[in-house]
Amino acid sequence: MHIWVDADACPKPVKEILFRAAERTQTRLTLVANQPLETPPCKWINSTRVGAGFDVADNHIVQHAEPGDLVITADIPLAAEVVAKGCTALNPRGERYTPENIRERLNMRDFMDTLRASGIDTGGPSAFGQRERQAFANALDRWLARARSDG
């Protein structure tokens, strides 16, 4: 059981929740990014720095994640790949990607990309606040409890 984090754009509060959970539950946690990351001194937590480039961190996670692992990412194509491998994927707002909802999310992402490419301002996600932080912590706790009872 391993938690992988697409860490380049992961909010700091989510990383802090993950650090505490990894230490508390003795779960391996790996942050993957193309820049150096600070992690607390804990044998369960590490970071992997990958080279710069499009999808390099995503590709590293896809290559190393195994069925049953958890991947934290806001990147929908990465989520689709790891869900297809049998991993669980959560975004930093605590929303779980599933085989049932991933196609819809990919279609919406592509639609929004098309709108932006045609010059329409689609705005961005709402601010990351206490409600989103709590939703993520709750989703993580549910995954950890399920993973512990299955393992």
* Mean pLDDT metric: 90
Helix content: 40-55%
Q: What is the strand tally?
A: 6
Strand order of the largest sheet: 3-2-1-4-5-6
Q: How far is it from the N-terminal to the C-terminal residue, by CA? A: 8 Å
How would the blueprint of this fold be written?
Blueprint: E1 2-6, H1 12-25, E2 28-33, E3 45-49, H2 56-64, E4 70-72, H3 76-84, E5 88-90, E6 96-97, H4 99-117, H5 130-150
Overview of this structure, please?
48% of the residues lie in helices and 16% in strands. With 151 residues, the protein is α/β, with parallel strands linked by helices. Strands 3-2-1-4-5-6 form a 6-stranded mixed β-sheet, sandwiched between helices. Strand 5 (88-90) and strand 6 (96-97) form a beta hairpin. The protein is globular and about 50 Å long. The model has no long low-confidence stretch (mean pLDDT 90).
